[in-house]
Amino acid sequence: MNATASSKASVAASRRRSDLPKHFVLILLLGISLLPFYMMMQISLKDNQAFFANNWLPGLPETWQWQNYLYAIRLILPYVVNSVVVSVTATAGCLATAILGAYFFARYKMPFSSLLWPAFLLLMLMPSVANIVPLFSIVKSLNLLNSLWALILLGAAGGLVFSIYVLRNFIEEIPQDIFEAAEIDGASHFRQIINVVIPMSGSIIGTLAILTFLNTWNDFLMPLIVLRDSEIFTIGVGLIYLNGEYVKEWGQIMAAFFVASLPLIIIFLFMMKLFIRGLSAGAVKG
Amino acid sequence: MSNSISKRKALHEWKLYLFIVPALLLLLTFSYLPAISAIYHSFFRWTGGDSKEFIGLKNFQAALSDSIFWDSFILIAILVASNVVKLVPSIVMAVLIHRLKSDRWQYWYRVGVVLPMIVPGLVTLFIWKFFFDPTHGALNQFLDISGLKTLLVHFDQALHLGGIFSEGVPISWLGEPALIIPSLIIWGFPWIGAVGVLIYLAGLQSIGAEIYEAAELDGANSWQRFRFVEFPLIMTQVRLSLVMLIIATLQGYGLQFLLLGPDGGPGGRGMVPGLWMFNRAFLAGEFGYACALGIFLFAFILGLTVLNNRYVRVEK
Amino acid sequence: MRDKILNAIGMALLGVCFAVSLVRIAARQFSRDEQGGDHVTIRFAHWQLENGVRSTLDQIAAEYMKLHPGVKVVQLPIPESIYTNWLVTQLVGETAPDLIQIGIGMTDERIARFFLPLDDLASNPNPYNRGTSLEDLPLRATLFDGMESGYVSTLLEYYGVPISGASVRMYYNLELLEQITGAGTPPETYEELVSLAKETQAYAQRKGVPLVPIAGSRYNAPMIMQRLFSSQTQKLVERLNPPGIFGEDLIRRADDYLDGRWSLDSEEVRSGFDLMHEVGQYMQPGFIQLQRDDATLSFVQGRALMISTGSWDATSIRQQASFRIGVSTIPFPSTESRVYGRYLLGELSEAGTNGGVVFGITRGSPQADVAKDFLRFLASQRMNQLWTDESGWIPAVVGIKVTPDVAPFLPVTVGYLPGIYPSIAAGGTFPSLNRLVGINLHRLVGATGDTGAFINAIKPGYRDALIHDLRRNHRTALDISQRSDTQFGGLAWTALAQPNDVKAAARMNAFMQSASMNDRKLYRIRHSLEKAEVQ
Predict the structure, then answer these.
(1) Chain B residues with CB inside 8 Å of A236's CB?
(2) CATH label of the domain that carries residue A167
(3) Residue B119 domain boundaries
(4) Tens digit of pLDDT for each residue in A156-178?
């Protein structure tokens, strides 16, 4: 309350200075950063002829080539399907495992947890760049090559340490009395998690979910070396293959990019607030 | 902080240990085991299959004289430096949004900042690859239309660059060895990271109004306000971004792989250590050697992290 | 409140997406399992993404599946850029398809480790040729190159079967040609090409249209330029060869250079570079930076009159172009020409062309027999006829009638042998030289290109690069020689243990021959190097 009152005062004080230059710079920067998006949209509705004639401006609505999208959907949708399954499952798995694990560390200082925790932290500091080579071999030994399960497990393991770290801090902030009250009511630990932890850390879980989801969605190196059959390709691999064609129909390619972005567009349009709030909350903690 | 617990209660709560088991399993298999395996296999000549031949330190010796590997660190250093500079637009953006008077505008700009994130990083990369295309790419067309191309041609002639920028010749951003490094730096213009902006914004918003008023009374102008008020108080966020950015850049090679291919592009100018490691393993089939390279890289990054933790203290 | 509703909708949509995806994957899994049992699936992989190839291979696969209902054949096209990567991971991960196109990313070691020797395939008749004139011939005799392209000399075995051929031609926009010259006949000599190019440039200027005579790129231009260069060095090679010896001997050429019998200043070499420079003037500015598809696009959009590329692009180009295409061999300078005629012997022969699109069979394949059968099917006369008719590529099997579209691409066997190339070899024998020439090429063929400047630029590093490459070749020959000791031991043991086994004795002799040739090469290189270092 006080903050708003005084900030309004300072606002009044600086009212002489116009916001216009700020708007100008902001719109300029935003415009440029939205350029890839714009280009993708307007090229996706052209055929190669129209594209070569005019690179920058979209054509008239009569000339829009909707069949580019048909082609893209036929080509990319299977990949999107695979990516959705992998990313959602990996995210769910990662979060479930992370919540359980973070709860273990945060609730009580169990014996051995002081041993395990540094071990976890070590993983966070350890660069994982060298892992891809033996990972390939491990996945092969587990007989998981050329299957989506490999990607799901890897995706879940990837975001695990960071999620546990963040969640542990969060859970520790929850006042002990709430836990004790639940315990008195006879709730098992599992129940405590469901009734106490999850509701209270909703936003941070949301943020972690989105981060993990994005990570697995954008990954292409692991899928590239693990998958063989084109039916189970994820988006990353699919786009790489598309990019390797000799004859490039740019309209179709851009439409394919758009279809590849669809699930994310859905998520962001609807869950924007959640994401923004979650990020900001996490930032203040950080 | 979590409660300390008596031994008796701990025994009673033994089921809690089960909660850590899935995480432990996943991490053991997919994080610890690969790390150990990498160290183990770096002492072997290993082609990825079942047969390996113990060769002791030969991989490491070869790595030490591997000029491609060590040269790639130069590029990494350049990329780290440029990535640090690329943090600036996000900070500028955050400050500008923060200083807007209207809350409604602030909200809409935050939406606008998040909007580019809708396009997944992978697609953005591919679109930028398209931007770099010599004949159809947006970059060359923009340079031609705006007349900047002529400027570059003069620049080329003045510095005797040997015709990288020539009149009537489409600039081959990813095909001309000398232009690869600039391309890796330019990509992603204007370098605004939605996550970064939001984090800095959150930090800025926690600055109390009294500080602003105090600055106002002292007659501070915009720049001074930034330098003495805003920037120091978002230092923690900036530092966090910085550390994560540096580690990610040091390890990363996906960008180079997509833009230039697993050989680092023409002349191999785009080769970074991670990419060379990938190349040795999955193109040349020298898995053991790649593990040794990975160990070097890992030690390098670990060393930097330790240095960072020891000497760079966060002041609240 | 609105947020909550939006969030709920978002989650619901995501949930629906997920559920639908899960159902699709489960359905696919289910249909996959149904095909277990007596259904066999074989997969074949290649990198030929050109137009026409994938659909033709699908057709051939469909024909095979009709004949063999219990078999499913799946095609795996892989982009060239990631082919090596893909190859290594598949072979090492033991998930490799049953048939793999051999070429990119192949080393002798990889072939020996991961591929099956196909001797039995090569020496026996092809059952799918029954009813044709080829039915009694061993498979390798039914192929135009005798299956040489599938033979690995260092391993003494056939490892692959080619199903196509390849050649390089000049393509013309016939309609545009008629507009420019009034008659639609492609030039036959280089001199006619030059005058056509000049006419084209004049035409372009008159009409104010963007038009270049030849579409060039870093991929297409070398095809013309290398060929033209080698025309100027034909007589040089003839002069350098000892009497009675014809043709390319790369080690000897390298030795000749080190001994000073020819140099970058030799008049023939200079003339070759001049030729490259001249022809480069008729391509787009900056062509050396452009990619393969940029040049193709230029041509099919009518912004270039001609383009030189391989027979493998014919279908792609025909499908993209809206005009009639003319095809001819790349024009050679005429012997009567004042400027370029004195150093050359005549048009090049393409008799030594080897087959392409060579498929090998992976060792670990659980259904290697079915794969072998499919390979025989692919290389049968009937299927190869289908191949050339549908894809527009050159066939590999002999005795096939080709369509009028494919006919101009058939290798022309009459002609002379080529001279040396700018980096001595046409292929990858001297990679450092390749690199040296490639990096400096823009000094020769750019708008400001100049032969003198180019030669001065590559002269300092030429000798060192050559020696570096010779050392590399020496190391490879040494490796092969050392490896062959064990092989030789084994073969000799077998031959000695069974003195009546004719085949074993023949193998040992063949091996000795090949090993001796390798050793000879090894010592010649060593001799050259020793001479060079002494100086």
Answers:
(1) 122
(2) 1.10.3720.10
(3) 64-132+173-311
(4) 998 888 888 888 888 888 888 88
What's domain C168-349+419-466's architecture?
Answer: 3-Layer(aba) Sandwich (3.40)
What is the pairing mode between strands C40-46 and B52-54? unpaired
pLDDT at A7: 52
| Spatial separation of the C-alpha atoms in residues B36 and B22, rounded to whole Å | 20
Q: What is the pLDDT of residue A283?
A: 53
| Cis peptide leading into residue C125 (ω within 30°) | no
Tell me which of C3, C7, C16, C17 to substitute to probe the interface with A (most A C-beta atoms closer than 10 Å): C17
Q: Which residues pair with B45 in a beta bridge?
A: B53
pLDDT in tens, C461-483: 899 889 988 888 888 888 878 87
**CA dist., res. A266 & res. B3, Å (int):** 42
Indicate yes or no: CB of C79 within 8 angstroms of CB of A228: no
What is the token pair recorded at A283? 């930032």
**Is there a contact between B70 and B293 (Cβ–Cβ < 8 Å)?**
no
Distance CA B139, CA B143 (A): 6
Q: Classify B75 in phi/psi space as left (phi over 0), alpha (psi -120 to 50) or beta.
A: alpha
pLDDT per position as a tens digit, A187-211: 777 777 787 788 888 778 888 888 8
Which ipTM value was assigned to this complex? 0.84
B123: CB partners within 8 A, 6+ apart: A40, A239, A257, A260, A261
The two structure tokens encoding residue A172 = 């520790």
Counting as contact any 3 or more CB pairs under 8 A, the partners of B are A, C
- Strands (DSSP E) along chain A, which ranges? 108-109
**pLDDT for C439-454, tens place per residue?**
788 788 877 788 999 9
Closest CA to C231 of C351, C349, C352: C349
Is the model's pLDDT at A230 over the cut of 50?
yes
CB contact under 8 A, B175 and C442: no
Place of tokens 């680092």: B264
Query: What's residue A16's pLDDT?
Result: 45
Residue B93 is predicted with a pLDDT of 84
**What's the average model confidence in pLDDT over C292-306?**
89
pLDDT band at residue B47 using 50, 70 and 90 as cut-offs = confident
Range with the poorest average pLDDT among C14-18, C109-113, C396-400, C435-439:
C14-18
Query: What type of residue is C6?
Result: L
Give the mean model confidence (pLDDT) for residues C274-292: 87
Asked whether the beta carbons of C342 and C238 are under 8 A apart, the reply is no
Domain assignment of residue A148, yes or no = yes
What is the arithmetic mean of pLDDT over B27-53? 87
CATH number at residue B296: 1.10.3720.10
Which residues, other chains included, contact C92 with Cβ-Cβ below 8 Å and sequence gap of 6+? A136, B47, B48, B49, B285, B287
Contact (CB, 8 A) for A10 and B216: yes
CA–CA dist C487, C151 (Å, integer): 17
Q: Looking at residue C174, what is its pLDDT?
A: 93
Q: Per the structure block, which two tokens stand in for B196?
A: 């970064």
In a domain, A237, yes or no: yes
Test B290 with A133 for CB contact under 8 angstroms.
yes
pLDDT digit string, tens, across residues B268-277: 888 999 999 9
Structure-block tokens of residue B136: 């159809």
Pick the CATH number of C39-166+354-409 from 3.80.10.10, 3.40.190.10, 1.10.1200.10, 3.40.30.10: 3.40.190.10
Give the Cα separation of B200 and B94 in Å (integer): 6
Interchain proximity C286–B166, CB inside 8 Å: yes
Q: In 3-state terms, what secondary structure has residue A105?
A: helix
